[in-house]
Amino acid sequence: MDAFKPAAMFDHTLNLCQSLPAVTTQKKWDNELRFFVGEKLFCMISLDPPHRVSFKCSQPQYHQLISRPGIVPAPHLARYHWVQVVKEDILPAPELESYLHNAYELIVSSLPLIEQEAINKTKVNA
Fold this sequence. Notes:
The chain is an alpha+beta fold and 126 residues long. It is built from 4 helices and 6 strands. A 6-stranded antiparallel sheet has the order 1-2-3-4-6-5. The longest helix is centred in the C-terminal third of the chain and has 18 residues, at 93-110. 29% of the residues are buried.
């Protein structure tokens, strides 16, 4: 699959994250848009070019991803297995989607059971 065109990774990430159940967004002072499920962060995108996408991943994915050029440990969050995609032409859209869905599910699974059940109900009704 082709790599993203300039700004396409930003738009794709924004649309995907906003489409997931129970996701809220918050713009922070560092000019990043942050995506939360429950009250936990699972993805961030920089609002200024060059757009960077940061997301939570599993420990094996973390080590695999940071071995690729253009993907680095996410500043301030690497110890929690977060990576940052610093170039838009690194991950094809389906691969990025898969990692973003995984980040979302990792965070949902860490929420209290009652919150997980409420989110799962919204998934079924969607």
